[in-house]
Amino acid sequence: MIMDNQNNQKRSPLESLQEKLYQPGAQIGERPEAPEIFQPKEIVPEQITKGWEEEKSEDYMTVKKVRKKKLLSRLFAAFLFLIFVGMAVFGYIYFFRTFRQSDILVKIRGPETVESGENIQFFVSYQNGSDFDLENAVLIFEWPKGAVPKDSSVLKIEKRIGDIVSGREASASFSGQFFGAKNDKLAVNAILKYKPKGQNSSNQGKLLESKAVFESIISKTPFSIVMNMPPRAVSGNETELFLEYQNLSETIFPDMQLKLKYPEGFIFSSAEPSPSFSNDTWDFDKILGRETGKIKIKGMLSGKDNEVKLFQAAIGRREKEQLTIYASNEYSVVISSTILFVYQTVNDARELSVSSGDILNYKITYRNTSDIAVPNVVISAKLDGKVVDFKTLDIKWGSFSGATNSIIWNASGVRQLALLSPGEEGAVSFSVRLKRILDVSGPNDKNFVVSSNAKIESDQIPESLKGIPIGNEDRVNAKLNTDIAVSVRGIYKNAPIENFGPIPPRLTQKTAYNIVWQLTNTSNDIDNARIEASLPPSVIWEGKISPSNYDITHEQATGKIVWNIGKIPAGTGFIMPAMQAAFQISIIPGIADIGRSLDLIFGTNLSAIDSFTNAVISKQSEGKTTYLLEDSYIIENRGWTVAQ
Questions:
Q1: Do residue 473 and residue 352 come from a single domain?
Q2: Is residue 75, in this structure, part of any structural domain at all?
Q3: Distance between CA atoms of 399 and 419, rounded to whole angstroms?
Q4: What is the pLDDT of residues 225-270, one digit of tens each?
Q5: Going by C-beta distance under 8 Å and a sequence separation of 6 or more, which residues neighbour residue 134?
Q6: Per residue in 297-330, pLDDT tens?
Q7: Which of 18, 233, 495, 622 is deepest in the core (most CB within 10 A)?
């Protein structure tokens, strides 16, 4: 019992309750009452709803405030991040970007080939291709030595530009003239100086430079120099040198100088005109356009047999003590100990240009240069040229051989030639006319030259002269100028440009006509061809030309019409079609014009240069009125006078 009590004391209340629950017949006893604190109170439904809503509202506002605070924090953080990135980019661009000089482009555009003395123009373009604006920009253009800038007395020209914003492109032009010899290379320089704005480098504050160079070649010089003298000279004898210079352009050249260089063994005797100083220099204040000058020099030439002596001449512009050469030439003479000497001229010249139908007068001078008489001397001259009219030969004291086209003089006609005494000299002559009409039937019929080759010889050489050259020969050439023709026609019917208006022309009504220029050219190419004419004040320029690509212009103020033709090939109008241009004009007759024919165009003037002979060509044609005989429609309708 005591043991049971002890065991009961050791059990926990939960174990005791469990024992009663599972023990048969056991009574648990009275259920204990719940403490009052756990008794549920009566709760009104409105109070339940209100309390729940208040609790819900308080939680929602709290969450909303938290979310808003987080959003603002994130936006602020993003804003700070963007500011940081922007400052980083700006700092990189400002502190770490570099200026590339290669982004600044300078270019020069101009003619690759020019004529000496020609007016030329260069265009300099510059472009700022960098990200920087440029400031204090200056464009410098440097002309080469031998150039004459327009409106400037110095070769280095500066233009202040100022600021050049990023991406800007602009240009400037420079005009002037190049002077020099043929094939001279002259270069112009363009330099752009500038300072980049905001550049962060060691060059900050210094002006940088971008450059361009352009080279032109002088293809043609407007000056020519021709020297003439016997091709062979006897050592110790006096000889003559004939020099001719010519300005082939319309340009006036100031401060000019001509200089000669004599060969060794030449002793100067005299000159006409006299040299400006020494015996080899002639100064000219200026040489006018198309001006020609001649100089005659006398002297004695000595040297060994068959030795070649070279004479050199140059003309150009004098600058201080230097000569800028525009043209040069040289002439070689062979020293000869030949016994018989012969020398000929044509129209008192050694070389010249002639025209079809001209008469050529030849003079052949001969001399015995030894101290021994030479018997049975024979002189001959052989003519060579398709343009010679042999039927017109006029020979003094000689005869003509048709088999060889040669003229021969001997003792039968010139008694002096039977025995030519020591130092004795004389002359023979002949003349011939050139054909008036040339046979131009193929591309090879051009650049005709009339040559005369004179010889002197003897078939009876004195015993003391055997082994020494006796005979001698000399050749002169005459270049044939081309024959260019310009015709002017007025056309109403079947014209290149369709006309309009009444025929005959009527009072206050407009009638249009075509004026047609037609060109033919025989044997040489033509350069710088140009036609000028002018319209009467009452004639209207309609502005239509044919072909439309021809360079024909009209000046309203003066009425002048200019056709810049340029080159006209040899054979134009003979082996190829004639060159033709047409333009349209019109008239509106007034009451004072009734019963009269009216002027349509005044006289036509053609100017050009023969490229083979360098001769200046000038042709004129008369003007045209409404009395147009070349238009059968006008003649048939008696449409040359103004009707009411």
A1: yes
A2: no
A3: 20
A4: 999 888 777 777 788 999 999 998 888 888 999 999 999 999 999 9
A5: 104, 128, 163, 164, 165, 194, 195, 196, 197
A6: 999 998 887 899 999 999 988 877 788 888 889 9
A7: 233
* Contact present, 362 and 345 (Cβ < 8 Å): yes
User: Of 274, 302, 337, which residue is a domain's last?
Assistant: 337
From edge to edge, which strands make up the β-sheet containing 169-178?
Answer: 104-109, 119-128, 169-178, 147-149
CA distances from 137 to 134, 188, 437 (A): 7, 20, 66
Q: 221 with 327: CB under 8 angstroms? A: yes
Mean of the pLDDT values across residues 478-497? 95
Domain end: 337, 371, 402, which one? Answer: 337
Give pLDDT tens digits for 538-566. 999 999 999 999 999 999 999 999 999 99
Would 587 be classed as within a structural domain? yes
Q: Are 110 and 199 contained in the same domain?
A: yes
> Is residue 51 one of the residues assigned to a domain?
no
Residues 430-456 pLDDT 10s? 999 999 998 899 999 999 999 999 999
Q: Map residue 462 onto helix, strand or coil.
A: coil
pLDDT of residue 157: 94
**434 and 548 share a domain?**
no
Are 508 and 614 in a shared domain? Answer: yes
Could you tell me the end-to-end alpha-carbon distance of the chain, in angstroms, rounded to an integer? 175
Q: What are phi and psi of 591, to 5 degrees?
A: -65, -30
Bridge partners (DSSP) of residue 286 are 254
* pLDDT band at 204; cut points 50, 70, 90: low
Question: Residue 504 burial by CB count (10 A; 0-12/13-18/19+): exposed, middle or buried?
Answer: middle
Q: How many CA atoms are closer than 13 Å to the CA of 54, on its beta-carbon side?
A: 6
Our count of domains for the chain comes to: 4
Structural domain boundaries enclosing 241:
224-337
Residues 6+ apart with CB under 8 A from 70: none
Q: Are residues 345 and 456 in the same domain?
A: yes
The reply to whether 510 and 575 lie within a common domain is yes
* Structural tokens at position 253: 């050249």
Which residues are 425's β-sheet partners?
367
SS3 264: coil
